């Protein structure tokens, strides 16, 4: 199994899970980031230990660059960990592509939330209803109250786009 395939098999489902959990709870489990980090380091080690070390340094730099945003409340701590974990499995150029794709996906997500304030109707939360309906009702309430964005959705989109376009995929 190639390192790229390993990273795709592990990271894409975990990114989707992180996005779903972020929508539902605004929390990203640490295990998701740890799983992506371990798979990423293993994938880069299959290319070479030097490449794995460089990717790990880039991941630390991503974490250090995003940490002040989390400390100011502009980005969640789970989002910072998730982005750094995925960066550990990518080359520096691929990490840059991931960051750019994530920023663009975040912009679209932000626009959707701005428009959602005006377009999402008031819904009542029915106890015991289907899970998807309850999650949508809670999310509609968050949109109207200008709650925080579930930025793991943007991270999952950016990460998946980059992972599916890796050389050797």
Automatic annotation (TrEMBL):
InterPro entries on file: Prepilin_IV_endopep_pep
Domain Prepilin type IV endopeptidase peptidase: 10-111
Highest taxon above the source species: Bacteria
Membrane-traversing stretches: 30-47, 54-75, 95-115, 149-166
Keywords linked to the UniProt accession: Membrane, Transmembrane, Transmembrane helix
Name of the molecule in the record: Prepilin peptidase
Protein source organism: Roseomonas nitratireducens
